[in-house]
Amino acid sequence: MPQLSLYIDDNTLRKIETIAKINETSISKLVSGILKDYFSKSWPEGFKNLFGSISDDTFVVPDEVNLNLDVKREEL
User: Fold this and answer.
1) pLDDT by residue (tens digit) across 62-75?
2) 10 Rama sector, left if φ>0, alpha if ψ -120 to 50, beta otherwise
């Protein structure tokens, strides 16, 4: 299996190490899984052709969300 070397900053490495430890896996398996998930996510073929194909008055643009009400996320 091919190997890959990455140059990342210390803060990012610490986060990766923390997530790997929490998931009881190696850094290699963790990053490999993240990359596989990233590349496997795509819209089905023909999805973009559906735009505008539904005529329904219940589809409306929602009100603007106040992002100041959002909760601050915990950093790893």
Assistant:
1) 888 888 888 888 88
2) alpha
